[in-house]
Amino acid sequence: MKKKYTTVLTIAGSDGSGGAGIQADLKTFAALECYGLSVITALTAQNTRGINAIYPMSEASLVEQFRAIASDIPIDAVKIGMAGSASIIKTIALLLKELQGTPPIILDTILASSGGTPLLSEEAIQLMKKELFPLASLITPNIPETARLLGMKKAPATPESIEAAAMKLLENGANAVLVKGGHGEDDNCRDCLLDGNRFFWFSSKKITTNNTHGTGCTLSSAIAAFMAKGEKMESAVEKAKNYLNDALLSGAAYRLGNGNGPLHHQCRQWECGLKQLPWVDGL
After folding, report:
1. Which of 21, 217, 261, 267 is catalytic?
2. Does the annotation mark 229 as catalytic?
3. Using CA atoms, how far apart are residues 249 and 247, in angstroms rounded to an integer?
4. For residues 99 and 80, what is the distance between their CA atoms, to the nearest angstrom?
């Protein structure tokens, strides 16, 4: 009997520089022994210094991309990244309802690029909360995104305020929330997971590096990959954070471009030697 691929579908924008978006997602899936599938929401002209231009795909293009894959290949998990517009969000929501079974769906609530370029209008943000929050198994906003999603004038900074904000995101329709703490001011990165009525905190020492391009994309993709392989949410988040830290630490030793460089997604394979296709079950 032939082995089954573990598959993860990313619905996101393309980053030609390879550090974020679809490219980072696919590298992450492969590194974590999953077979990556993709639906592209937008083409971007970007590099390590920022985004120069964005070219959204049409709704018809998204529908054709998605249905071509879903009609032929079983999907074990979905990661959603940059949507870019209200119409794209609405299309994604309609397509997710066509999925066979109930694969975990991880929504990376990308509201702006790491360089500050706005990627969603206020109308689109409200539509994301209405249409995508209820469909997602987990949303993964960072602290500034959490504040904007909730219309807060001041971003949450204490554990108590972060937990309160996570609870409000559940009230806004989310099923589970991971508030990423990388924007905190101390030497540790503390992420808060609210799953149902239980809080889980994950803490790791911050890694000093300028190579942080695609960090959020990578973490959400890693969570999707681990959940596709059957991990429960708490375990998937913990393992994804460990992988992210490895990729950040390894990536800090390299230089690519003149801005914020990428992580080293293949760090584990390069260290131990990649002998077989990584995305096949049982290897």
Report:
1. 217
2. no
3. 6
4. 14
pLDDT digits (tens, 9 = 90+) for 117-165: 788 999 999 999 999 999 999 999 999 999 999 999 999 999 999 999 9
Contact criterion met (CB below 8 Å) for 150 and 165: yes
pLDDT digits (tens, 9 = 90+) for 237-248: 999 999 999 999
Residue 109 annotated among the catalytic residues of the structure? no
Catalytic one of 215, 239, 251, 267: 215
Task: Tell me which of 90, 180, 239, 241 is the catalytic residue.
Answer: 180
Q: Is 182 a catalytic residue?
A: no
Q: Which two tokens stand for residue 187?
A: 């030497």
Q: 229: which DSSP letter?
A: T
Task: Please state, in angstroms and rounded to a whole number, the distance separating the CA atoms of residues 131 and 27.
Answer: 28
Q: Half-sphere exposure of residue 227, counting CA atoms within 13 Å on the CB side? A: 25
What the chain holds in terms of domains, given with CATH numbers, is 7-141+212-272 (3.40.1190.20)
- CB-CB contact of 243 with 222 (8 Å): yes
